[in-house]
Amino acid sequence: MKNYKNYISLIILLTIMCGIMIAITQISKTNTLNTTDKTTSQTNTEPKPTFSYIPARQSSINHVEYENNFGGSGVDEVFEIFKLEDFIIIGKTNSTDKYFTTNSKPSLYVLIVDTLGNAKSTSLFEVGSSFQILSSKIYRNKIYILINHLGTKLLTFDISNKTFDIAFFDNNPNAELVISNEPIVLIKNNNSTNAHFCITDKTFTINYQINSISLACEYSNGTLLIFNSNNQIIIGILTLNYFDVINQIDNSQIETINITEENIVMIANQDNSTRIILLDLDFNIVKNTYIAETKSIVILSQSNQHILIGKQNNNLVVHNFCSHGTLLSNKTITNNVKEFKILSNSNEFQVAIQTTNNQLIILTTNILGEIKNQIELNINTHLTLNTFVDENNSYILLGQINNINQLITNCFGESDIYICKINKV
After folding, report:
1. Do 187 and 175 contact (CB within 8 A), yes or no?
2. How confident is the prediction for the chain on average, in pLDDT?
């Protein structure tokens, strides 16, 4: 009898324990659901619809083989385009749809487009309103992008992994980026410049105010810097431990510069006139001569000549100087030029021109300025040219296009990123 009672007591005890465990389980489930509900209502938003990239399409416009545009319904600006195996386009956008669906505020973007005009990837780094892209450079499979937003930020974009990172920050918004044996951020103060070496993570102070860098490259055991400082051109070598001035040119400011096998060729404003200044490779001045005022000059060097192409008023002109700086010839190539981009090829060059009437023209001319071939797209383009390349007997043009044009059938927004391929014949 005693054993029977003990058996009954054990069954009752087990039943009570099972009931308690079930109750605990139900409470746990209820709490978990409630927590999930609260989290969802506070942090989750309705997912944005995905957007499928639009492939490049054929064009009915004569000479245009294909065209494509990228962007959203806002303003999509192009800052820089690099040509590697593909085109890497860098800019800023306030669009939050189409190609920038995942965006929620003004952002930096990196768009990769192949030579067939098709988008391969879009990457975004959200920044906020009123930011500026100051500079972008490629260094070892990364793009270094300097922006101005609540100070100076140096971002890196890994081309392989398509990821961003912040490499450097300074409260001073006035800065410039150069690439030598490593990326260097130059923080500009009133009377000095802090050179921050990004890989070494060391800063050296240059006791010059740098207004703008004209040239930076590896040289000897440091970095050759040629820059405008107040009313001087300063040439010097920067290392981790010193800045050594090699030469300075007073009352001058560089507008553009190029290095050839024999000379450093500068176009400078000196004493309110435009000058061509030739330096030997020891940085000594060998020629300083006047040229007629010319804007947006591109310096080419071919056949022992220095060829200067630029704008006088709205005319595209070419000046030919011998290697010693003596003027050989000058000629007006064409007129009504708003902007231009140049490709150099042996003893001739190609010029993509946006005219003052927003027409797009591609000229082939020799170094004397004689036109050999001309392709005209007699349409209203409103295209801001950024990159012009020769690709398989065709030209590829990239830039920024606005929504008032005849070159493209549909714009996504106020301005889009644009690519087109133009046949040479």
Report:
1. yes
2. 87
Q: What is the pLDDT of residues 210-227, one digit of tens each?
A: 999 999 999 988 999 999
pLDDT at residue 17, as a whole number: 54
CB 421 within 8 A of CB 409: no
Residue appearing with tokens 């639009």 = 54
pLDDT of residue 262: 85
Query: What does the pLDDT look like over 314-341, one tens digit per residue?
Result: 999 999 999 888 999 999 999 999 999 9
Residues 128-152: tens digit of each pLDDT: 988 999 999 999 999 999 999 999 9
The whole model's pTM is what?
0.85
Write down the residue that tokens 């009672």 correspond to.
Answer: 5
Distance CA 185, CA 201 (A): 11
Question: First vs last Cα of the chain: how many Å apart?
Answer: 111
